[in-house]
């Protein structure tokens, strides 16, 4: 499978393990979902690339400060459904690219795990709000076994 480069702003399909699922003892996500890559870290040219990503969900956030709504035009361009969706900022997943949990985008061929890129302004808003939440200890990583 030819994979895209994991660059910040890329929306991928991933079997995301929610923090609540982790607490219940699960070690696998229940389904593939869109997730936004917000950072990539590579120690040096010979090391793996670590990816930090945030899940997208149609569930409204309990606290508006813990999510960013995806505008309808962006959802349409990414070929996502018409329902309202939010990028969740309160938890994130970090994994080694490419990992076993990437999933094929529905309706695409087997080589496609990416929906497309977030607009730069929206991406910067998401990134900046995430950094603020991490600094205030209001966001946490989801660990997997």
Structure overview:
With 145 residues, this protein is α+β, with helices and mostly antiparallel strands. The chain has a single domain, classed as SH3 type barrels. It has three helices and eight strands, in the order βαβββαβββαβ. It has helices at residues 19-23, 72-77, 120-135; strands at residues 10-15, 32-42, 49-57, 67-69, 86-88, 91-96, 114-117, 140-142. Strands 1, 2, 3, 4, 5, 6, 7 and 8 form an eight-stranded mixed β-sheet that branches. It is globular, with a radius of gyration of 14 Å. It starts with 9 loop residues before the first strand and ends with a strand. The model has no long low-confidence stretch (mean pLDDT 90).
Layout: helices, strands, pairs:
Layout: E1 10-15, H1 19-23, E2 32-42, E3 49-57, E4 67-69, H2 72-77, E5 86-88, E6 91-96, E7 114-117, H3 120-135, E8 140-142
Parallel strand pairs: 6-8
Antiparallel strand pairs: 1-2, 1-7, 2-3, 3-5, 3-6, 4-5
Major sheet details: 8 strands, mixed
Order of helices and strands: EHEEEHEEEHE
Q: Please, how many helices?
A: 3
How much of the polypeptide forms β-strand, as a percent range?
A: 25-35%
Q: Low-confidence segments, ≥5 residues, pLDDT <50?
A: none
CATH class wording:
Mainly Beta
Secondary-structure class? alpha+beta
Under CATH, the topology is which? Answer: SH3 type barrels
Tally of extended strands? 8
């Amino acid at each position: 499978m030819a994979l895209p480069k994991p660059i910040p702003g890329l929306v991928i399909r991933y079997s995301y393990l929610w923090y609540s699922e982790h607490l219940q003892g699960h070690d696998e996500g229940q389904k593939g979902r869109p997730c936004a890559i917000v950072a990539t870290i590579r120690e040096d040219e010979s090391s793996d690339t670590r990816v930090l990503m945030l899940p997208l969900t149609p569930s409204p956030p309990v606290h508006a400060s813990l999510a960013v709504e995806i505008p309808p035009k962006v959802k349409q361009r990414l070929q996502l459904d018409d329902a309202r969706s939010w990028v969740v900022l309160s938890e994130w997943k970090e994994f080694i690219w490419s990992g076993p949990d990437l999933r094929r985008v529905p309706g695409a061929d087997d080589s496609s795990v990416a929906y497309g890129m977030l607009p730069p302004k929206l991406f910067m808003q998401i990134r900046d709000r995430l950094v603020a939440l991490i600094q205030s200890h209001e966001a946490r990583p989801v660990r997997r076994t």
